[in-house]
Amino acid sequence: MPPFASTMPPRNDLIRSQGISPLSDIITIDVGGQLFQTTKQTLALAGPKSLFSQFSQSTHVSLAPLFIDRDPELFSILLSLLRTGNLPSKAKAFDLEDLIAESKFYNVEPLLVNSLSNPSLFDAFNLERSLTLPLNGRDFPSAMATTSFGTLHVAHGSKITSFDWALRRKSTILTQFTAIDSLLAISPTLAAAGATDFSGMQILDLEKGSVKETLCWENVTRSSSTVQAIGSSPDFLLTSFESGRRNSNSIMVYDLQTFSPVTEIAHCEIYGADLDSAIPATKLKWVESHNVVMASGSHSGPSGILGNVKLWDIRSGNVIWELKERVDCFSDITVSDSLSAIFKVGVNSGEVFYTDLRKLGDTDSNPWICLGDKRKVLNVKKEGNGCKIEAHGNQVFCSKGGDVELWSEVAMNSSKKSEDGLPDRVFRRNLMGRAKDIGGSRITNLAFGGSKMFLTRKDQQSVEVWQSSIRGF
Amino acid sequence: MENEIPSSSPSRHPTDRIKLNVGGKLFETTISTMQSGGPDSLLAALSSRHTQDPVFIDRDPEIFSVLLSLLRSGRIPSTAQRFSKQELADEALYYGIESQLRFAMSPPPLSGIDASLVTTIHPASDGLPSTFTAAAGDGSIWIAHGGQISAYDWNLSHTGTIRTHLDDITSIRRILPDVATVGSNSAAGLHFYDFCSASHLGSTHWTDSSDPRIYKARVTSIADSSNQVFASFDCQHRENCILVIDKSTLQIVSEIARQSGSSAKTMVPGKLTWLPDTGVIIGTAVTSGAFGYSGYIRIWDPRANGAVIWETSEPGSGRSSRFGDSFADVDVDVEGSNLFKICSKSGDLAMADLRNLGDDPWVYLKDKNPMMRYTGGAVDSVIHCYRSQVFVGREGALEVWSRVIEKENGIDTENVIGEELYRRNFVDKLEDSERGIIKKIEGGGNRLFVSREDVEGIEVWESSHLSGAVSVV
After folding, report:
1. What is the CB-side half-sphere exposure of residue A101 using CA atoms within 13 A?
2. Contact B298, B311 (CB under 8 A)
């Protein structure tokens, strides 16, 4: 008896649900001279816009089969994809480009995207260094942006190169910036870009290479408004501006569809030597579960690096929680919705810290829990300089030099915790990659999209792609 | 395993025949072939339908033709090479004939004298395996590496990776289909992890309120019976014992074999084996010091409060007929009820019949082949008994001692352990041995898994009936 027999539904249901159908549901299609038979239900899985579902709606079932003048081999691959949800191994005989072109003809490209680049396929433990995407010219990548299904935009110099979800095709556009410091993908063809030395944020159409909109912040001094950071929530586009004279800063909230301003939060005017309010937010992260935006910024002052982290409620414009960083300020900071925690790399210690979003207490006490050597907090070596930290899914990725550390939470049995003397939450680290993958020059950017991780390195005119081995390709 | 090959004699009754329409292609077969997939398979369920029209199944016809010939002939046709193993397994699961496919796809029984390296399994990160377990017996393997556990199924395809709270797993055993139990040299306790939920189920610690020296006991080896787990614990004060743990409740049943650890004769066992025939547990410990190897073999009965049934220690016990040639490693041949030891000085292999242990039970196996004569001094040796063969790793070389069948009926040789019944052969080639010192050998299913010191990945050795002829044209 097969081991899975017990999990199967009763026989009659099985036959009904698993594609063994009455004759009236069977559709015959003649593709390039080869006959295929399938069911209406299978074809309907392709979605209402696809050519497949139009076949199933055609009424002349009993007459001659529908004829489509396309390649039957490619059709059989797409049909297998519909039936099983996975690409068959015969797809390897073709280039992915052929399949994408064919899927565009039948209007079923989302199916292909789903099976190859779905974010749910992202398997942090199984990522391998697999591709390098070269960038033409002599500029080094300065910023990266991804969509959830794996389209990648890379800013290098005054150019933005966009790679499609399959990383097979690219296009490059020229912008007005000399270098882009902040980049955010709004859709596969639309991106928001800004720079710390250029006034205004631009919404760029990456297909046409044109500026769709320029968004500026009207500050009191009537000087230029440079962009320090760009973030987004499902509804809003968030931009951190600083005035050209660097005496005021603010976070503007725009509607993500119309780009009209919605509200302004965190407006600061600096009078005198108030260092803390002079720090503009250089990272904006939306926290969906708490409906707040995390804004963080740091500043190198006479007494070391100072910084602050604030959680803003956009609707009320109030600060929910604020933390001033004086000892071992973050070198980079991120927030994870699924882990409900803020993570930072300390600039002095180079260690990873976390604080639980559900237990944010008063801001006087140190909320950070060190995940490494606590004694290093007070060292002055700046070991964490240049480290990047990003959260994706249930994992936190932290770059240190040329290596990426993967931090994952271990789900511990709660009743046994006290016996083992373990803290409330257990995070453990692994270095990513096999021996041959480890090392390389310093990592400057980390991004995640679809089933892939992208990173750029210092002095390399390329993007490195890490992905888990996916069936089919 | 249902491995009867269905009779392919021509069927005379037309009612025995059944027509199937798979994805537009017609197949005709007999009801008995359809039912050979077992009573719970989808095909057997379909065969009971009495209709004139062919039964329509909305799946890929090409893979179905492979699976149909598997049912007809019991073997996989060469046309299956177009499909990946994973694809065949998924499709067989759909039709409910996975056990047939598993049987046809699994390698022939492992024969050490005719095995070759088929593949090396590389986890995606932290690729140095610290230990592994193949105890499920279906050719699957769970690898512990860098605090993670990666599971590979009977097909050796990666099914998942979980992170444990330990940083260095030094002993692992799969005690239930989804549960691994792990221990570490560097952290206290025995820990249970569930693979489905990727969570920590619980921990077991050795405690004794009357003895303050018993704390932070670490696990050195794990064995299991059908309902119990045996784990040896070692304290920093070298006190040690074996805890018997119930598999269903994860509670300690009893503590046996408590030893002081003050000498080589009482230190913690580094290897535990449970004998299903007699229900006893065999523990062995070997250390190497400035004066050579020393250690013991001891047999406890867990039901009789851990009474010692038999023991021997080397050097020094009268139970070794060879002075100054103490064992370097010991293993138990569970199927054949034999003990095997590898001598540290001479490199000879000796065996003892577990049913007939006396004062000096050892029989030293002679190697007649002058080419193979072992001349080296004491080297790192590991020994593993699997399927009545003895695999020995000597530095990097992998050799096997296998029994020669002398008489066809085997009656004459039954009761005599012949010195000359075993022959020694190398499994590997000279160049294989240069990859590194063999750290662990374990058999599982029809595979032999080998890990080497400071080498990434686990080697998989299999026997094959294919000649592997290489064309030189």
Report:
1. 10
2. yes
Strand B307-314, strand B292-301: pairing = antiparallel
pLDDT, tens digit (0-9, with 9 covering 90-100), for A10-24: 333 344 444 455 566
Q: What is the CA radius of gyration of chain A?
A: 26
CB atoms A411 and B197 under 8 Å: yes
pLDDT digits (tens, 9 = 90+) for B48-99: 776 677 888 888 888 999 998 888 888 888 888 888 888 888 889 888 888 8
Whether the ω angle into residue B315 lies within 30 degrees of 0, i.e. cis, is yes
Regarding pTM above 0.90, the answer is no
Query: How far apart are alpha carbons A114 and A111 in whole angstroms?
Result: 5
Spatial CA neighbour of A96 closest among A72, A113, A80, A76: A113
Report domain extents, chain B.
17-105, 112-463
Give the A window 338-377 contacts with B, CB below 8 Å. Answer: none
Q: What is the 3-state secondary structure (H, E, C) of B295-325?
A: EEEEEEEHHHCCEEEEEEEECCCCCCCCCCC
**What is the residue type of B170?**
T
Whether A46 contacts A106, CB under 8 Å: yes
Which pLDDT score is estimated for B231? 93
Question: Shortest Cα distance from B363 to chain A (angstroms)?
Answer: 44
What part of B 15-34 touches A (C-beta under 8 Å)?
Answer: 21, 23-25
For residue B210, give every residue at least 6 positions away whose Cβ sits within 8 Å of its Cβ, in sequence order, or none: none
Q: With beta carbons under 8 A apart, name residues in chain A contacting B203.
A: 413, 416, 419-420
CATH of B112-463, one of 3.40.50.2300, 3.30.450.20, 2.60.40.10, 2.130.10.10: 2.130.10.10
User: Would you call B247 an interface residue with chain A, using a CB distance cutoff of 8 Å?
Assistant: no
Minimum distance, in Å, between the CA of residue B161 and any CA atom of chain A: 6
Beta-carbon separation of B148 and A125 below 8 A: yes
Q: What one-letter code names the amino acid at A350?
A: G
A and B: number of Cβ contacts within 8 A: 159
Task: Quick: pLDDT tens for A342-358.
Answer: 999 998 888 999 998 88
Give the contacts of A217 (CB within 8 A, at least 6 positions apart): A225, A239, A241, A243, A250, A252, A264
Cβ distance of B41 and A433 shorter than 8 Å: no
Angstrom distance (rounded) from CA A387 to CA A385: 6
Burial per residue of A31-42, b for 16 or more beta-carbon CB atoms within 10 angstroms, e otherwise: beeeebbbbbeb
What ipTM was predicted for this assembly?
0.80
> One fold for both B17-105 and B112-463?
no
Whole-angstrom distance, CA of residue B354 vs CA of residue B224: 19
A412/B198 Cα distance (integer angstroms): 10
Q: Does the B17-105 domain belong in CATH 3.30.710.10?
A: yes
